Structures are given as C-alpha cells and as structure tokens.
Amino acid sequence: MSGPGLFVVLEGTEGSGKSTLAVNLADRMRQVGLDPLIVREPGGTRAAEMARQALLDPDHHVGPVAELFFYLAARADLVQQLIRPALAKGRVVLSDRFAMSTEAYQMAGRGLPAEVVFPANRAAADGLVPDLTLILDLSPEVGQARQVAGGKRLDRLDRESREFHRRVAEYYLAVRGEGVRHLDGGMPPDRLLQSAWSEILMLAPERFGAVAG
Asked: Beta strands of the chain (E only): which ranges?
C-alpha cells in the first residue's frame, strides 16, 4: 500500500463515468468520517492546470511527443505537490486518471514506443503505484454519445478519430494485474458506485469495514 494512506485511481475511456464515480465515492467516504483528496489528471496544481489547458484546447495542435511530456510534467507536479503529502498523512487519494492513461492514450492511441512511455511514466510518478485501479469499461461510441447528450464541449482528445479511441478502449480492456479491477461502465451510477465501493472494501476492510453496506 501507499504508506499510511490509500491511493485509488479511476481509469477508462472518454464518457465512461469516472468523474461522476469519483464524486460519489468521495461522498460515501465522507459519510464514514474520512476526508478523501480528489484529484484529476492533468490538473490539480497551477502548473498542471496550465498543461491541461494547453493539452485539451481543440485549437491548440500538440504533437505526440510534446503531448507526452505535457502529461508527464503535470503528473510529476501533482504527485509531489498533492498526492504524496496526502498519502503521508494517511489520507485516501482518489484520482481521476493516472499513469495508465498515458499508456492507453499516448502509447496505444498515439503509437509512441513502450520503451519510451513506461520509464518516463515511472519517473513522472516518482515510483508511485496505485493500491487499486478501477477501469470503467465502455465502448467509445457509447461514451461519446453520453458526452453529446450531456452537452459537453468536446475537447481536443474527444475529437480524435474513432480508430484512435478504439485503440485506447482495447488497451484498457486488455489490462490485467495486481490491484487492477474492471467494472462495467454501462451500469447506472448507483450500481457502479456499489460495485466500486465493494472493491474498495475488499482492498482495505480495516479502514472501511464499519460501513460494508
């Protein structure tokens, strides 16, 4: 585990429900007396928010390598400024995206080589590995339909080709490993919350066991 704290990451394609789930999970944690830190990638610090604006602006062209380093710089600042200090204090950190997003979008989506992405990812994360990664599986078509229905202004990544988003989704679907769990992103928000909460309870029953319901 991440020292005295707990590091939980939500991953998935665009429109898969990560942001809504993060808010709902944080509310559930507050109900049991915890004070979770919610962060998003890229973002959370002044430098990371500047990177976010540059990366997601649909009128701003960014090449694949430059894009990679924008994300890495944002992550490095977020880890050092917010995530590690919170974990050191024993807090739960709930992150909307982390290093796996770089693997899915810049490596699988953009085609950047693994020998570049993996070590760069480790350096930006300062070796930090999530205790639990919840991947919300959803087809890109359904995710985009949700975004349109919700009136979201599509950003630069949202507007990428169907093939790009298909590669990203296929990468997520294939990920397996310790601390990785897949959830059906097509479930209603209340059912998705319960499934995610069950995974968190199994990870740290000593911390959340008093509210297993």
From this structure: 6-12, 37-40, 92-96, 132-137, 180-184
